Amino acid sequence: MSAAAWTCLLLPLASTVLITLGGTRISRRVAGYISTLTTMGAFAAAVYAFVRLLDNSPEHRGAVTTSWTWLSAGQYHFGLTLLTDQLSIVMMLIVAGVGSLIVAYSVGYMDGEDEERRYFAYISLFVFSMLLLVQGGNLLLLLAGWGMVGLSSYLLIGYHQDRPSAIAAAKKAFVMNAFGDATMALALFLLIQHTGKLGYAEVFATSPHGGTVANLIALGLLGGALAKSAQLPLHTWLPDAMEGPTPVSALIHAATMVTAGVYLIVRCHPLFENAYVIQDLAAGLGAATLLMAGLIALVQTDIKRVIAYSTMSQIGYMFVGAGLGAYPNAMFHLMTHAFFKALLFMAAGLAIHAVVGEQDIRKLAGIGKLMPFTKVVFLIGSLALVGILPFAGFFSKDSILASALARGWFGDTLFVVGIIGTFLTGVYAFRLFFIVFTGEPSAFAREHFHSHHGKEGPLSMRWTVGVLAVLSVIGGFLQFAPLWHPLTTWLEPVARPIAEPTNTQEYLASAIAILAGAAGIFVAWTIYAAKRVKAPRAVKLFEQKFYWDELYDVVWYRSADLLTRGLYAFVERPLIAGSISAVTGAVGLGSRELSVAQNGLVRTYALALASGLAVLTVVFLAAR
Amino acid sequence: MHWLTTILIFLPVAGALVVGALPLPRYWVGSLASLISLVEVGVWITTATKFDFGSASLQFSQRRSWVSDLNISYHVGQYAFSVWLVGVTTVVMAACVIYGWWVGRERARAYFSLMLLLTGAVVGVFTAQDLLLFYAFFEAMLIPLYILIGVWGGAERLRATLTFVIYTVVGSLLMLASIVAYGLQQGTFDLTKIGPSNSTWLFLGFVAAFAIKSPLFPLHGWLPATYRESPPEVSAVLSGIVSKAGLYGLLRIAIPKFPEVVADWRVVLLVLASISLVYGSLLAWRAPDFRGVVMYSSLAQSGLIVLGLLANNDLGLDGAVLQMVNHALMSSALFLLAGMVERRTSTGEFALLGGMARGRPALATVMMTAGIISLAVPLSTSFAGEFLILAGAFQQHWAWAVIGAGAILLAAMYMLRAISAVLHQDVGPAVPDSALDLRGGELAVVVPLVLCLIGLSAYPNLISGHAFGGNRAITQVITPGGGYLTPTIDHAAQRANLTTCTKSGNQGSCQTVLVSAPSGTTTWTRYAP
């Protein structure tokens, strides 16, 4: 059991080390294979651990293993501890499973890149970091994983090092996530002060209930979750992160890392339940994000950015679920979303790959005719995203909306927002689908399309997309709350939901949501496929992404810049440097007057030494 | 066994004499000096393996009376935290000596003999247990530096040296006056015996000297010229090792010997430390050159470490010792890398650099790793150090930790900016296509430093959990009840037990607890939380 947990965690790290040290001694292709095989090995280890957990009774499914004390100070000890329980095993399976598909896909996608080895070293580092995040047995290791995924995300967004926009996006992502790390660290300091521990069980048992302290702890953790999951108001880095290679967007910025915030809330739910206000805040911010992202997605023209905004929006749903206390539903949506969003990105990747990197949907228009397989899988992904029966998103998203109905007026408000969001999802998802994949191919698409030996892409890209398409179709059948709910039962001991909708609410939510989604698709069809209605002009506010970037630029960057210039001009130069130059000037002048030929330096020191001795003598005499 | 400390101090000094005296060609001078510095590392490894980290007592100590009238003695020895500081000194000095050899510094005999002398003096500072001996080593450390900067520095070296001399001489004189007055007042100069004092002026004399050396805002005026004009390996030694002498002084002398004054001045010092942290980070963020970033980040890190030292609890103190070692490794690696970049481009200006990653994987990997660890990415050893420091400062008051957390954000901004400006984006005008990747010699110097950092990242507890031994004989510690203990050492049975209470936060009754201590009896006064 513990061996499996450690194998799962360390295999990807070994891959990073191997590829980095191997350098040019291993070929690019072999680097890709090492990375893929180790991720698959991690998945196998996770499956093994899962099977072993099944043997135990539900109450005894948490296995803790500590290698050594990582950090300690006086009475405080923080171990390098792995926790394998019902929640972490779900995350391990998703991360390593979807991860190995996407890494395998990368072998084809990155083929021919200059620095392919670096890419695979980074992506293995990411898989390690993400596994550390979900497997870490205390909050300190969670924070360590939290920072490490931020680092690998930074490295991968900035993979194209000579592209200034990629480097800027990478730095932005890192700094914004570092803000989240900082608020999380502050929450941990509070926990240390009030409980003296950072292990999950001890912290949950002894942390304060209610009051300012509990609220601040939850708020600090929420800050980390918002930054990592690109929720309001810390979301602006995610669209820019699309500068990274497409498989990176699929793995990090859709399937795994950005959903870490949901995992955090579910994992630390006792701390959030101690602070109802903050938990409601999480749900409210999730709702606001899903609405805003849906509106912005309507007017984007870059295929990856549309999908990125839909990711923000879908994570908004998960935040609503986790914030309302419907933890299994949030986790369920996290899982299905990993399938269909990775599918969407990778299908988009197939199209982008086929036209040598073009991402503008107006130029890609009509490419579906040239790529029938891609068209079908993209359609599956879009249907799952909108939540049409029987695709995966239907089961998971609707159960979140249903649990909103079970939480009074606040829940009802969130439900309405969620339904509007579903309508918007239908519009933007199928706007994208109809523009890119239906109709006649544009001149650009025809001219630049090149098939891969008569196929739509290399084999490694096609089979992985196929597997995800299948999962996006059948993945949802894992749970349909009114009839069967194995996931809820499985997670019960670690994350007992506090919002449990009745069957009526489930059916009602499903019916309304599916109607809203279908209405959205119909609107998109009338405008972009049937072209019965002229497309409305894009709203400036949406195109400018609600001006968040401009706001942060003024509030954070420009003010810090101004402050620094001020400090330099009014403190550092005149006071700090100025005073000493005055003194050195005087000393230099004095020594020049005494003697031109001598070295001022040696004599200055001799002078100082002599005066030191004089002081010494005086003090000695005075003291005697 | 007890000779080990003395050997650690005088092996490089003897080496300096040999290197300076033998008329060898340049190459052989360098290799002999490198060999000596590596032997020194070996001696330290022996020391560390024989050291009992479970014990808080002074180990490998030696004592010879020097001036018996005044109770001055040659007394050296090591506490657990001294072991780590000595260790990082030997490692960084070895790297810098070898770099000097690889670069082929002019006037090799003088250069290497000064570098070895410096090594011995710094080790002496970290191990001296007599105040006057401490002062002697402190001065002996500065003299080689004046010459190293003044002779081997850049174009503006004389101005830089003069600035450095003025600052350090002022600091040294203040410290000397404090030492003499303190020693005479207490009747001994022995650090293990000398009792606590409540003289504000003596305290301020020490603090001024240590704050100049660390440095702390606003006493960092010597920083820009000195770090920019020194040879890169000397900058590495200055910011990596020599600055730790100031912090060590705070830890070993200013804080434990003046408990009452520290309590009065704690807030002032914490404010100065916070200003150093934020101010240094901001200036590093807008610095126009690579060395500027590293140097202002050193100011920031020094402020952070002082926050930990003054946090007055285990978390802060252990974190501070860990972070001293981390910063020594990080900033020396970064200064050496700055030197390596400058050798290729003859400039450190960001405006003229860029795009160096392409085709130079070793440079890119090493610089990226060093930079990322120094911005304290979680899971790195510097994250571990900063986490402990800020967790400790948080218990003092939440505001210090909030300021510190904000500064960590700034650290990400300035370090990523520096990395990108050198490695990424368009190739800078000063970067010739022919500029090579790091060569074997350079890798041999900088990779061990980075490997130390990676190793510590896997197990930072090696230092944080083994910095003070079993009980905290050196300075104040937190107790399970939430209060803290203040040691007052009863020396030579000449005085009655001093159990003074500090003024801050001591409501409730004072109870007296007796704890075993290395020499004599230590009386611990516990204050209710």
Give the secondary structure arrangement, pairings included.
The complex is a heterodimer of chains A (624) and B (529).
Chain A: H1 2-22, H2 28-55, E1 63-73, E2 76-84, H3 86-109, H4 116-135, H5 139-157, H6 164-195, H7 200-206, H8 211-228, H9 237-240, H10 246-255, H11 260-267, H12 269-273, H13 276-297, H14 303-324, H15 327-354, H16 361-364, H17 372-386, H18 392-405, H19 408-437, H20 443-448, H21 459-474, H22 486-491, H23 503-529, H24 540-543, H25 548-594, H26 600-623
Antiparallel strand pairs in A: 1-2
Helix pairs in contact in A: 1-2, 1-4, 2-3, 2-4, 3-4, 3-10, 3-15, 3-21, 4-5, 5-6, 6-8, 8-11, 8-13, 10-15, 11-14, 11-15, 13-14, 13-19, 14-15, 14-18, 14-19, 15-17, 15-18, 15-21, 17-19, 17-21, 18-19, 18-23, 19-23
Chain B: H1 4-21, H2 26-50, E1 59-67, E2 72-78, H3 80-103, H4 108-127, H5 131-152, H6 157-186, H7 200-213, H8 223-229, H9 232-257, H10 259-286, H11 290-309, H12 314-345, H13 361-374, H14 381-396, H15 398-423, H16 440-458, H17 461-464, E3 477-478, E4 484-490, E5 511-515, E6 521-526
Antiparallel strand pairs in B: 1-2, 3-4, 4-6, 5-6
Low-confidence runs of chain A (pLDDT<50, min 5 residues)? none
Cα Rg of chain A? 28 Å
End-to-end distance of chain B, in Å? 42 Å
- Quaternary state reads heterodimer
Measured as a percent range, the helix fraction of chain A is: over 70%
The number of distinct β-strands of chain A equals: 2
Return the average pLDDT of chain A rounded to an integer: 86
Tell me the major beta sheet of chain B. Answer: 4 strands, antiparallel
How many H/I helices of chain A?
Answer: 26
Main sheet specs of chain A: 2 strands, antiparallel
Shape of chain A: globular
Share of β-strand residues of chain A: under 5%
**Shape field of chain B:** globular
Computed Rg of chain B: 22 Å
Strand content of chain B: 5-15%
Q: What string, H for helix and E for strand, traces the elements of chain A in order?
A: HHEEHHHHHHHHHHHHHHHHHHHHHHHH
- SSE order of chain B, as H and E? HHEEHHHHHHHHHHHHHHHEEEE
